[in-house]
Amino acid sequence: MTSPEAPDSAAAPPPSRTEPTAPSAEDLLLATARGEEQAFAQLYDRLSAGVHGTARAVLRDPDHAAEVTQEVMLEVWRTAARFDPTRASARTWVMTLAHRRAVDRVRAVQSQRERDQRSLDGMHHPPFDVVAEEVEDEMERARVRDCLGSLTDTQRDAVLMAYYGGHTYREVAARLTAPLPTVKSRIRDGLLRLRDCLGVPA
User: Fold this and answer.
1) Which of 3, 66, 81, 183 has the fewest C-beta atoms lying within 10 Å of its C-beta?
2) Which strand (E) or helix (H) includes residue 122?
3) How confident is the model at residue 18 (pLDDT cuts 50, 70, 90)?
4) Given a cut of 70, is residue 68 above it in pLDDT?
5) Could you tell me if 147 and 198 are in contact, meaning their C-beta atoms sit under 8 angstroms apart?
6) How far apart (Å, rounded) are the C-alpha atoms in residues 188 and 127?
7) What string of DSSP letters covers 45-114?
8) What is the mean predicted confidence (pLDDT) over 23-47?
9) Nearest-CA neighbor of 101 among 135, 126, 133, 78?
10) Rounded to two decimals, what is the model's pTM?
């Protein structure tokens, strides 16, 4: 009697393997709350682009948006223990932080601009155009060039663009990628230093 052949083990299908699922954002945030840096690194990779997009939509300025993104992700690392998965998803919680921080930045920037403008309005220096005319009318151009060397680089660039390049203050601000009140302040301070250097009476 012939015994049945043993099954060919080589032909048997390999045991099925279940691929590990990626942790959810909620899991990563909870792990971050426990101080797990690797979890935070994964959470950063997953959500930072969305944080930047939220900040950019509010601020319109890429530099401010990038700064807010870093601030928000740092806040996530520091305050992850406050996250409650029963109240919101991890993405919603983080994007809410991003929106609030971006709105705070808008208010801070606006407040600074208003303070700068009030400071400019409250000063009793001669108008910019009057000072520029005194400098050009009463002193030789050679002395002006010498005195330009006493200005800071930012003051000199702003003054040259505005009074020797014929650009408006807004054009100067755009070329220097600086806020308009800051540019006005640089021009004012630069012209006053020029006047003092050249000996033009106030």
Assistant:
1) 3
2) helix 90-122
3) low
4) yes
5) yes
6) 8
7) HHHHHHHHHHHHHHH--HHHHHHHHHHHHHHHHHHGGG--TTTS-HHHHHHHHHHHHHHHHHHHHHHHHH
8) 94
9) 78
10) 0.50
Joined together, the tokens standing for residue 144 give: 């002006």
Residue 5 corresponds to which amino acid? E
Predicted pLDDT at 12? 57
Q: Where are the domains of the chain?
A: 25-108, 124-198
CATH code for 25-108? Answer: 1.10.1740.10
CA separation for the pair 104, 179 (Å, rounded): 18
Asked whether residue 117 carries a pLDDT value surpassing 70, the answer given is yes
For the segment 125-171, what is each residue's pLDDT rounded down to a tens digit? Answer: 555 555 555 555 554 556 666 777 788 888 888 878 876 667 777 88
Q: Three-state DSSP class for 5?
A: coil
* Architecture in CATH of 124-198: Orthogonal Bundle (1.10)
Q: Which amino acid is at 79?
A: T
